[in-house]
Amino acid sequence: MSPENQAHPARRRRVDAERNRDAVLSAAGRLFDEHGPDVPLDEIAKTAGVANATLYRHFRTRADLLVAVYADEVAALDRQSQELAGHEDPDVALTQWLRAFADHVATKRELAQAVPDDPDRDRGAQFASWHATMYGAADRLLDRARTAGAVRAGLTTRDLLTAVSGIALTGCSGRQLQTLLDLIRDGYHS
Fold first, then answer.
1. 158 and 92 within one domain
2. The pLDDT value given to residue 48
3. What percent of the chain shows pLDDT beyond 70?
4. How many C-beta neighbours within 10 Å does residue 145 have?
5. What span, in angstroms and rounded, lies between the C-alpha atoms of 53 and 64?
6. Inside any domain, residue 152
């Protein structure tokens, strides 16, 4: 063991454990996107470059992994909103985030539906928390756009996210999805 590792063996293990957890989450997210939420956990461990025991040390069950991956996706939307809150143009910031939100709704639906309701967790409470996070992220950007006069007075976050979600759930992709999102953008401008 190197002198550096001898001085902080517990710290070193925590860093390795965090790196392994992140690798499992990343691999699971990619594989869930590519193949759906029923991907074998062995394949996730292999893709992450960890042993099966390491995966199970972090995620006791498939349900735990599904929840963690979906929570990570919601957290990414929130981080993006925080970053965009500093953008010089509040309209552009809101539009960029709404496009990311539409992509989330369109591509993470199967993952969200796979999150089970079981005795260890209240699915409704989890989703309420995730929705609150997404609404908070949208509020942050909509408030800035409203203050800048870039959006209609009276536009609510609920109205905006409902419209974008509806479009995202149509199954449209590519150019057609962008066209529909542009129509919404034209509609909420002041």
1. yes
2. 97
3. 92
4. 23
5. 15
6. yes
| pTM of the model as a whole | 0.84
Geometric angle at alpha carbon 175, from 112 and 155, rounded to 5°: 65
Say yes or no: 162 and 135 in one domain: yes
Q: How far is CA 38 from the centre of its chain?
A: 19
Confidence of residue 187 (pLDDT cuts 50, 70, 90): confident
The answer to whether residues 74 and 134 touch, using CB atoms and an 8 Å cutoff, is: yes
Reduced to 3 states (helix: H, G, I; strand: E, B; else coil), residue 118 is strand
64 domain residue, yes or no: no
- CA-closest candidate to residue 86, choices 75, 76, 97: 97
Residue at 172 is within a domain = yes
Separation CA 154–CA 76 (nearest Å):
28
Helix (H, G, I), strand (E, B) or coil at 80: helix
Domain around 121: 69-190
Length of the chain: 190
- pLDDT tens figures, 76-94: 999 999 999 999 999 999 9
49: left (phi over 0), alpha (psi -120 to 50) or beta: left
Q: What is the 3-state secondary structure (H, E, C) of 125-160?
A: HHHHHHHHHHHHHHHHHHHHHHHCCCECCCCCHHHH
Residue pair 148/184 in contact (Cβ under 8 Å)? The answer is: no
Average pLDDT across the chain, whole number: 89
